[in-house]
Amino acid sequence: MSGVGAGFEGIRINSTDETVVKKIMFDDVSSLLAHEGSAILIDRVISCGASDLVALVEHKKKSLYSDAQGNVPIWVGLEYMAQTICAFAGVVSLQSNKPIRIGLLLGARKYSVFAPQFTKNSPVEIKVEEVFRDETNLAMFGCEIRDCKDGRVMA
Fold this sequence. Notes:
By secondary structure, this protein is mainly beta. About 10% of the residues lie in helices and about 35% in strands. The chain has one helix spanning about 75-95; strands at about 5-15, 20-25, 45-50, 50-55, 70-75, 115-120, 125-135, 140-145. The longest helix has 19 residues, at about 75-95. It is globular and about 45 Å long. Pfam families: ApeP-like.
């Protein structure tokens, strides 16, 4: 496998009443997701903390949702957010030596957009931060998509 090839510091899990900080390594975002092939829309993970993760979508290659010019509708950002949350869950699973599981997006409280589309060759960062998790592992995340070139919020 090839791809990310980066390590992440600061992943914390509780283990026997103490916080364990580990460094994890993985080569490919597909190692974090229960998706395959063209269903994977995020390109790589660029940072990960105890409660947040930032992924990158470069918009360089044709995707399931891109138009003839290579642009992607802004509503696909909701799936970018969902896959970034799945990548966070994948990191947590790897830290806990558990298998990667399929996640379900149950809904979005609000999805505000500030651009008509994601433009070809214009990378975006997707940041997700865990806000709440209950005893059944149901979690809520705050999410944001920013243009990498000018830093503006797109969704």
